[in-house]
């Protein structure tokens, strides 16, 4: 195997989520005119509402200005990632009475520098092993196909999520073959178009691949590929805002519940309670803004568990803890002029390593989840480049001999919204906080499931039951009863 052609460390720029706008060069303004303009600018700034210096004075596109949240909202959605905005959008679609429901989305970081949505690799597939996950993918694929009918805004440019149709290709060894075949049977029963390929068929279709240890492969024929997550997030935000959803920058740090009223009388926290106020910590300030609300949706992604832990809930109201936590995942990018061409699928290797092409100019993206005992410290989003060199690259170069020689281009890290209980989303009402709904814990497949999950939770809130998809099994009950739902297809 040749040595990997590797640039100096400095070339491995961390890229991804934070969409920074380069400032245009300043004209050469004479000093006096410059200071006059400065004073005018300051006077205008003083008149206009701002997000405060904590957000760099930059108002992200689509976020209506306004320094403060309202004092009341019908629904407060905590977390303005793709899931939170999807819930907000569907609430307005389903409310049935325009301007009837006041929905507020609270996001603590409007630059989205750590949000999973914008740090993901944008994939959608039908190949899951849990029927609910397949159904959500099918719903989302149909939603994305007609995205302009759903999220188009009159007089705004049409949405182009840059969808790249391309099947996922899962490879199985002889030991894994029966399991993969059974999963494909289930996917077909659910209506997904997935082919099983023998090693000979695999070699004929993808001659650049070493198939020596492969017994069988599954290949998605429809509704699989990848798209631009940032565009989808913005499309949800823009549409939801056009339907009247409010948003504000702030960190939800606590809930005031009805338990606090009952405790002085009874001395003990009651078994169940309702959230009366959400406490929003305002950016760059010591202030808290209470927002009275009827419903709260926890769409805080990888931090959904932390939100409940930190909310200061009395008694056993926070029990059982929500087992959702941030897990750091690296995405590496490389160039290989002799690598697989346009028909390259998103390949998931027998070892768990994956890659896909990135454009059509010989660039690729890929990575691998580490074993449980080697989970990296999620404290920051620094990238471990040795992980690619020592773990990911050898596996991929074994599978694709052309990758024996490649040039690294960059890398970034993001957080999987990992549900440590069973690696599936948790949707629906909290067992003890009667007006809290959860939509989080998708464990690396929340981007593609956001359209379906948002609709499902909005149905629960507005109609009191699931109508489009029956996702009851993804509720809290399984956590309380200790009955995990399996999903083999977590990459
Ligand atoms: C490397 C990587 C690759 C991935 N690839 C895919 C893929 O190919 N396909 C796929 O479907 N999924 C993928 N995912 C997973 C997907 O990105 C997530 O499941 C999905 O984005 C979750 O969306 P979210 O809105 O719940 O979370 P986020 O996008 O993280 O949004 C949650 C938001 O809540 C905010 N927040 C948290 N706490 C608070 C609080 N207390 N107050 C106010 N705001 C708060 C955060 O700031 C954040 O912006 C990938 C993830 C990673 C990291």
TrEMBL record:
Q: Which GO terms describe its cellular component?
A: mitochondrion
Quote the Gene3D superfamilies the UniProt record gives.
D-Amino Acid Oxidase, subunit A, domain 2, FAD/NAD(P)-binding domain
This protein's superkingdom?
Eukaryota
Q: Is the Hydrolase keyword given for this protein?
A: no
GO biological-process terms attached to the record: mitochondrial respiratory chain complex I assembly
Q: What Pfam families is this protein classified in? A: DAO
Task: Please verify whether the record's keywords include Oxidoreductase.
Answer: yes
Alphabetically sorted, this entry's keywords are: Oxidoreductase
Q: Where do the FAD dependent oxidoreductase domain residues begin and end?
A: 74-460
Q: Which GO terms describe its molecular function?
A: oxidoreductase activity
| Function as written in the Swiss-Prot or TrEMBL entry | Required for the assembly of the mitochondrial membrane respiratory chain NADH dehydrogenase (Complex I). Involved in mid-late stages of complex I assembly.
> What is the protein name for this chain?
FAD-dependent oxidoreductase domain-containing protein 1
């Amino acid at each position: 195997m040749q040595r990997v052609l590797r640039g100096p460390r400095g070339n491995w720029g961390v890229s991804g989520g934070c969409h920074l706008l380069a400032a245009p060069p300043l004209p050469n303004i004479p000093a006096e005119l410059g200071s006059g303009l400065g004073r005018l600018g300051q006077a205008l700034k003083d008149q206009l509402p701002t997000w405060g210096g904590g957000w760099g004075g930059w108002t992200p596109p689509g976020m209506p200005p306004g320094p403060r949240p309202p004092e009341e909202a019908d629904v407060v959605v905590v977390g303005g990632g793709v899931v939170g905005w999807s819930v907000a959008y569907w609430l307005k679609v389903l409310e049935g009475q325009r301007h009837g429901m006041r929905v507020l989305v609270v996001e603590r970081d409007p630059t989205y520098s750590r949000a999973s949505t914008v740090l993901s690799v944008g994939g959608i597939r039908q190949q899951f092993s849990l029927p609910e996950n397949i159904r959500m993918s099918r719903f989302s694929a149909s939603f994305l196909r007609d995205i302009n009918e759903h999220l188009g805004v009159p007089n705004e440019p049409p949405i182009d999520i840059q969808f790249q149709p391309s099947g996922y290709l899962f490879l199985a060894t002889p030991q894994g073959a029966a399991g993969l075949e059974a999963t494909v049977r289930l996917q077909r029963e659910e209506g997904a178009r997935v082919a099983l390929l023998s090693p000979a068929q695999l070699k004929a279709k993808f001659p650049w691949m070493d198939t020596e240890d492969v017994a069988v492969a599954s290949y998605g024929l429809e509704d699989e590929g990848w798209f631009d997550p940032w565009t989808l997030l913005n499309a949800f935000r823009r549409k939801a805002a056009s339907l009247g959803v409010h948003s504000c920058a702030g960190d939800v740090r606590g809930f005031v519940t009805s338990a606090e009223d009952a405790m002085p009388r009874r001395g003990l926290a009651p078994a169940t309670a309702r959230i009366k106020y959400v406490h929003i910590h305002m950016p760059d300030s010591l202030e808290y803004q209470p927002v009275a609300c009827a419903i709260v949706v926890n769409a805080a992604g990888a931090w959904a568990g932390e939100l409940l832990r930190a909310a200061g809930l009395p008694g056993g109201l926070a029990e059982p803890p929500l087992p959702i936590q941030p897990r750091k995942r690296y995405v590496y990018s490389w160039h290989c002029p002799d690598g697989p061409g346009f028909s390259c699928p998103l390949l998931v290797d027998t070892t768990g390593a994956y890659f896909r092409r990135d454009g059509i100019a010989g660039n690729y993206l890929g990575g691998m989840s580490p074993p449980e005992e080697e989970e990296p410290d999620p404290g920051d989003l620094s990238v471990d480049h040795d992980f690619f060199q020592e773990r990911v690259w050898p596996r991929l170069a074994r599978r694709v001999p052309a990758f024996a020689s490649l040039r690294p281009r960059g890398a970034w890290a993001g957080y999987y919204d990992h549900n440590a209980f069973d690696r599936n989303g948790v949707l629906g009402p909290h067992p003890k906080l009667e007006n809290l709904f959860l939509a989080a814990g998708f464990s690396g497949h929340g981007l593609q499931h956001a359209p379906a999950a948002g609709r499902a939770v909005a149905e629960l809130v507005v109609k009191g039951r699931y109508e489009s998809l029956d996702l009851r099994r993804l509720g809290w009950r399984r956590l309380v009863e200790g009955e995990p739902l399996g999903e083999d297809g977590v990459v």
